[in-house]
Automatic annotation (TrEMBL):
Domain Protein kinase per the UniProt entry, residue ranges: 49-321
A Pfam short name: Pkinase
Higher taxonomy: Bacteria, Pseudomonadati, Myxococcota, Myxococcia, Myxococcales
GO molecular function, one term: protein serine/threonine kinase activity
SUPFAM superfamilies cross-referenced by the UniProt entry: Protein kinase-like (PK-like) (SSF56112)
Keywords: ATP-binding, Kinase, Nucleotide-binding, Serine/threonine-protein kinase, Transferase
Source taxon at top rank: Bacteria
Name by which UniProt lists this protein: Putative serine/threonine protein kinase
CDD domains reported in the protein's UniProt record: STKc_PknB_like (cd14014)
PROSITE patterns assigned: PROTEIN_KINASE_DOM
Length: 321
């Protein structure tokens, strides 16, 4: 079993884009208030769960490992920070995000089990994951077949979310969690849907749209095949999370079919990108199946874009989201 990467164990909090979201009030549960300080939570009882130890902290709350008192099932519980709970708008968005997550129910998205409220402080109960983030997993260049396997799972998760009108908004390698199976295959669990919209500007840069999500998949793929992923799961050269000033150079030995797919996903104009996560997924699978050979008729792989071809060879070029 791989180690637990506690820096990415913060649960997913999906949220509709601001134009669609309509936060609703949730009445508090009639249970004893939680202690005000997160450090005092360990050893406390929350519903049927006993809090065992702290796993990590994020901009919204503290995540703790908990165990069901009767069936010994382990879960992760996040309690909203006390100062965040005082901001009614962020609390409303947090609760709406949790309710939205229950709509998706996908194998590649972390599962939410319960939502509660104690003395005005919300908490979430979700599945406990053992593994590591993609940011921790990716050290150096990854094989194209492995990158495609991971990205197709990400696309599956995004497709399920997009079908409900939900965009991720801050996709990067730190919120893609990998859980290994007995055969060693890495299973993707996507975290932090819409969480950037709930964080202060310095901690998140939300762009709630399908084209932005697809751009993020393409950029992530390019960084993984080039071995240019930073320690925090972001482009090593990016000045701020979520902002790529340049497209990363693609390795010259990368199969041309895969290069085409990644470049189309990272196209400067959203209209030039893939129309859906499913379309991107299909193109990725077709590209790796070719393994650098000529594309058979009918696959629909895009030619290299003219703005890229004019450079003469793969390299960093200006880009925008």
């Amino acid at each position: 079993m791989s180690r637990l990467d506690v820096t990415t164990s913060v649960p997913v909090f999906p949220r509709e884009c601001p134009a669609r979201a309509r936060a609703r009030r949730v009445p508090p549960a009639s249970e004893a208030p939680l202690p005000a300080r997160a450090s005092t939570l360990v050893g406390q009882q929350v519903g049927h769960f006993r809090l065992l130890r702290e796993l990590g902290r994020g901009g919204l709350g503290t995540v703790l490992l908990a165990e069901h008192a009767l069936i010994q099932k382990r879960v992760a519980i996040q309690v909203l920070h006390a100062h965040v709970a005082q901001d009614s708008a962020r609390v409303a968005g947090f609760l709406q995000a949790a309710r939205t997550l229950t709509l998706i129910q996908h194998a590649n998205i972390v599962s939410l089990y319960d939502l509660g409220m104690r003395d005005g402080r919300p908490y979430l109960v979700r599945e406990y994951l053992e593994g590591q983030s993609l940011a921790a997993f990716a050290r150096g260049r990854l094989a194209p077949a492995l990158v495609v396997d991971l990205l197709t799972q990400v696309c599956d998760a995004l497709s399920a979310a997009h079908a409900h009108g939900i965009a991720h908004g801050s996709l990067n390698a730190s919120n893609i969690f990998l859980v290994p199976d007995a055969q060693g295959r890495q299973h993707v669990k996507l975290l932090d849907f819409g969480i950037a919209g709930l964080l202060p500007p310095a901690e998140g840069t939300p762009e709630c749209s399908v084209p932005a999500d697809l751009h993020a998949v393409g950029l992530l793929g390019a960084l993984l095949v080039a071995g240019r992923l930073g320690a925090r799961g972001l482009p090593a050269e990016a000045p701020l999370p979520g902002h790529a000033r340049e497209l990363p150079p693609l390795p010259p030995d990368l199969p041309s079919a895969l290069s085409r797919v990644l470049l189309k996903a990272m196209a400067r104009r959203p209209v030039d990108r893939y129309t859906s996560a499913t379309a991107l997924r299909d193109a990725l699978q077709a590209a790796v199946a070719l393994d650098g050979g000529a594309p058979p008729e009918g696959l629909g792989l895009e030619p290299l874009p003219s703005w890229f071809m004019s450079l003469g060879s793969p390299g960093a070029v200006p880009a925008s989201r």
